[in-house]
From TrEMBL:
InterPro entries per the UniProt record, alphabetical: Na/K-Atpase_Interacting
Organism listed in the record: Ornithorhynchus anatinus
GO cellular component: plasma membrane
Single biological process term from Gene Ontology: regulation of sodium ion transport
Protein name as annotated: Sodium/potassium-transporting ATPase subunit beta-1-interacting protein
Leader peptide range in chain numbering: 1-21
Gene for this chain: NKAIN4
Keyword annotations: Cell membrane, Membrane, Signal, Transmembrane, Transmembrane helix
Record-annotated membrane-spanning stretches: 34-55, 62-86, 152-171
């Protein structure tokens, strides 16, 4: 295959997905978003599997990658609905942290232009006591940043799905054509013994 084929494009898409997933994983770790962390980890593993299958001409691995991209699109649609509070979902809930912490997206306090202010609780002078945190001046609300992240993931995943199906079809056609000409058959049906039969008889009557 040439360098401008679907196979090379799929390799590029898988590499792009890996970079985007790693970037997202870093910020999800900073925000203690445990559900996205697990999803990103699984996504990275399967994208590496798809990349390996594309490089090594393993269509089965690419099929697994294609199936996962459909699941990955569904997950990112859920993330968009979560942050846009569609269908009764609330972005302030602890669903993405498995209800074990009260953390929110890292972008909620560190977005572009955001200024974080802490106000000590009245009447409490303990240094370890919690303070009221307010964030002002954000140029873009954090939920829209998360929505843009998920939208990019969906776009790349959809393109990857299309190219994965295309590459699998190409690999399958090549394997079928190679099989048809006896490429994988070590003993073809049309194989004949090239040694003349008279030589076989001569070997039988050789003197001791």
């Amino acid at each position: 295959m040439g360098c401008c084929t679907g196979r090379c494009t799929l390799i590029f898409l898988c590499t792009l997905q890996l970079l985007a997933a790693l970037e997202r994983q870093v910020f999800d770790f900073l925000g203690y978003q445990w559900a996205p962390i697990l999803a990103n980890f699984l996504h990275i593993i399967i994208v590496i599997l798809g990349l390996f299958g594309t490089i090594q001409y393993r269509p089965r691995y690419i099929v697994v990658y294609a199936i996962w991209t459909a699941i990955w699109v569904t997950w990112n649609v859920f993330i968009i609905c979560f942050y846009l509070e569609v269908g009764g979902l609330s972005k302030d809930s602890e669903l993405l942290t498995f209800n074990i912490s009260q953390h929110q997206s890292w972008w909620s306090e560190n977005g572009p232009g955001c200024v974080r202010k802490e106000t000590p609780m009245a009447g409490i002078k303990d240094l370890d006591s919690q303070s009221y945190v307010s964030v002002i001046g954000c140029a873009l609300e954090y939920r829209y940043i998360e929505v843009m992240h998920s939208s990019v993931q969906i776009l790349v995943a959809l393109v990857g799905f299309v190219y994965a199906c295309y590459v699998v079809s190409i690999f399958t056609e090549e394997e079928d054509s190679f099989d048809f000409i006896g490429g994988f058959d070590p003993f073809p049906l049309y194989h004949v013994n090239e040694k003349p039969s008279n030589l076989l008889f001569k070997q039988t009557y050789l003197p001791a």
